[in-house]
Amino acid sequence: MDFKQIFAEQLAGAIDHVLEVEEVNKVIEKPRKQNLGDFAFPCFVLAKHWKKAPNIIANELAAKLEHSLFEKVEAVGPYVNMFLHKEAVSKLILSEVLQQRDQYGSNTTGQQAAVTIDLSSPNIAKAFSMGHLRSTVIGNAIANIAEKNGYRPVRINHLGDWGTQFGKLIVAYRKWGNEEAVRQNPISELMKLYLRFHEEAVHDASLEEAGREAFKQLENGDKDNFALWEWFREESLHEFARIYDLLGVQFDSFAGEAFYTDKMDAVVEMLEEKRLLVESDGAKVVLLEKEELPPCLIQKSDGATLYATRDLATAIYRKNEYDFAKSLYVVGSEQSLHFTQLKLVLQKAGFRWAEDMEHVTFGMMLRNGKKMSTRKGHVVLLEEVLTNAIELTQKIIEEKNPSLIEKEKVSHDVGIGAVIFHDLKHFRTNDVEFSMEAMLNFDGETGPYLQYTHARCHSLLRKGEYSPNTEAIELGEEEAWPILSLLKDFDQVVKLAWREYDPSKVARYALDLARSLNQYYAHVHILSDKKNKQARLHLIYATATVLKESLRILGLQAPIEM
Ligand code: ARG
């Protein structure tokens, strides 16, 4: 139920629609302090129209407004402050959550239109980096948020499985590779080969040339090179799959860069036809001088295509295949120039839908203030981080709750949840400091804290022998109001998270909700009061439901015992 909207409708009526409901709705504020009510309407906007002081208008309006959901309406200076009727509102909110359960807070804005989300997208034969982890968990959460807003998300893993580096890798493998070693440890072996190639290329100029040649042959469909490439890809995907399994993330498509090889000529032709291609040092580029940007490289002098060309083909393919309403790219901010160029080139070529493409950037993962890299020595293989988190959780649970059944499953859910939540609680574009200790703190702002609060709700419900029904659902007590007030805001949070493509809105909300629940728990003896027991358990159940749904949106499990 949208209480703000109800207030707006009443106000619009009271001012004879001098302002329409939507305009009124837009200016309604949420007072910072609870003693100023639940919503406030500033009367400045009417002063000009009525040539009256805002304070006077506020007084008049306050006297006029009446509604069964309003406890009182009072004027404070130029503001009309409205207090919701706690008992009536609690009844409405609680019955809504109880009826809708995991559908609570959903809306139909998207009307089932497709939203393609380019996420994760690691490079074959290279380590899965912290950046790829961020892209995976942020992208997955944004997909869930899209769905909650009525869209149909399409999760696409745009694998980096094409490009000149595969020519180099093929050369390196033929020279120094060992089949058995690659089978055992595909990514680390292939990375070693790739590094060796670059080391030796410093004093052997013929290597670079051989690499270029091998890639050209690959692009021309050479059988042997193709077989090698296919094998590297398969082995790499196998390793990535372990990480996706751990994270619980699934994809609708793995169409990566290689998927577009046969769709590239059409792109070059199209650009040619629209007279956008210019020769520059034998290469073909699209100039972006007016925009004061470097040219977008489309084709090298030897005919090889580039990252940008493949992304052009990709964008067009996605529009044709999915007819997206939005096309999101969850990729680190280092690639901002690339995505700006991409969009501009498409716009120049006359594709209006390029407007709907959005580069959703994110900050870096830091350790001790420095970028965590997989290149310069301190290789942090993500799988290690994840299994580490699970093991540490297992130890904590062994100490805290040794008799817990399903210990293994819970350790998994909590350990992984800790890593995911630590990433998502930060505003998306901020950098994140990596700290296993901080992630696993059961009392901090962590995934485990939320999961623990959720499990605590369930233990209360078990003790109170609760079963969801709609009896005795009014809860007027002051102490419950902060929770109810948050429950009522969930739908707004879901909308905001979508508008800003920002999962941290949901993460922060879940923390607030858990905190207010724990405060309530500390101050109110939930089960001891006969009169209120049932209503309080409804509140606990509703809170558990919304917490669980928030966790689900973020990609976390919510065990009922831990
Ligand atoms: N594979 C790239 C990388 O690891 C990311 C690809 C992002 N998606 C895209 N459509 N360009 O840097």
From TrEMBL:
Q: Major location, coarse class?
A: cytoplasm
Please name the SMART domains in this protein's record: Arg_tRNA_synt_N, DALR_1
Would I find ATP-binding among this entry's keywords?
A: yes
Q: Which SUPFAM superfamilies match?
A: Anticodon-binding domain of a subclass of class I aminoacyl-tRNA synthetases, Arginyl-tRNA synthetase (ArgRS), N-terminal 'additional' domain, Nucleotidylyl transferase
Catalytic function, reaction form: tRNA(Arg) + L-arginine + ATP = L-arginyl-tRNA(Arg) + AMP + diphosphate
GO BP annotation list: arginyl-tRNA aminoacylation
From the Swiss-Prot or TrEMBL record, state where the protein is found. Cytoplasm
**InterPro entries (alphabetical):** Arg-tRNA-ligase (IPR001278), Arg-tRNA-synth_N (IPR005148), Arg-tRNA-synth_N_sf (IPR036695), ArgRS_core (IPR035684), DALR_anticod-bd (IPR008909), Rossmann-like_a/b/a_fold (IPR014729), tRNAsynth_Ia_anticodon-bd (IPR009080)
> EC number(s) per UniProt?
6.1.1.19
The Arginyl tRNA synthetase N-terminal domain is annotated at 5-84
Please indicate if the UniProt record lists Ligase as a keyword: yes
Q: What keyword terms does UniProt attach to this protein?
A: Aminoacyl-tRNA synthetase, ATP-binding, Cytoplasm, Ligase, Nucleotide-binding, Protein biosynthesis
Renumbered ranges of motif 'HIGH' region = 122-132
Query: Which Gene3D superfamilies does the record match to this protein?
Result: Arginyl tRNA synthetase N-terminal domain, HUPs, Isoleucyl-tRNA Synthetase, Domain 1
What class does this enzyme belong to in the EC scheme? Answer: ligase
Single GO MF descriptor: arginine-tRNA ligase activity
* GO CC, any one term: cytoplasm
DALR anticodon binding domain: residues covered: 450-562
Write out the similarity annotation.
Belongs to the class-I aminoacyl-tRNA synthetase family.
Q: Subunit structure, per the record?
A: Monomer.
Q: What is the recorded name of this protein? A: Arginine--tRNA ligase
